[in-house]
Amino acid sequence: MALPLLHDYALSSACYRVRIGLNLKRLAYARVTVDLLKDEHRAAANRAVNPQGIVPTLEIDGHVIGQSLAILDYLDARDPEPRFVPRDAAARARVLQKMLAVAADIHPVNNLRIRRYLADPLGQDDAAVTEWQCHWMCEGLAALEAMAAADGTAFLSGETPGLADICLVPQLFNARRIELDLASYPELCRIDAALGTIDAFAAAHPDRLTSPAAC
Ligand SMILES: N[C@@H](CCC(=O)N[C@@H](CS)C(=O)NCC(=O)O)C(=O)O
User: Fold this and answer.
1) pLDDT, tens digit, for every residue of 116-172?
2) Which of 25, 128, 134, 210 fits 124 for a cystine, CB–CB 3.0-4.6 Å?
3) For ligand 1, what atom is nearest to the CA of residue 67?
């Protein structure tokens, strides 16, 4: 049986989520690089697997799946342990609430295509685009910090790492890339540090990728 194939870009946080998920499920996988800086995501080859012209895409079990959260949902349904979301309805809703705070509210407005559009045609300079990113990240992370502090659990998803954690780590990686001061988010930093000691998370870090995708 062929290994799952991830259409991946090392620095993409949506791809980073999928790498963590594959590692947590202990699924070996192959990677093909889609270089966003060379606009390879917009080319016909990537659109053939991902009509949105974005990454990630996972080829697995004869299926071609786009959208990181759809991929993670597939992996969780395919191999239920370790679970990405709890069974209990209330706990599940809380994990999804935190996950969506990142994946639906912080990440989309800071994406490459959004930043490019702010620059051209909207004419914003680099400083303004960075200010945009910092604003939306700070607002979103402050809300997430409040949720984490209120819950006081070992991880963002509860006492074991789950879907909210899978989204948190790449988002904080993004925040550090733009040198955002994370001192106001001590709970998130504590959780992030704990997650960094777990192999499945550590091995998915962009710096750990040894193929040409690491850039
Ligand atoms: N909601 C999508 C977001 C995917 C996405 O936006 N990927 C980014 C990289 S993190 C991308 O391909 N960006 C290309 C662009 O914005 O032009 C998912 O979770 O998979």
Assistant:
1) 999 999 999 999 999 999 999 999 999 999 999 999 999 999 999 999 999 999 999
2) 128
3) 20
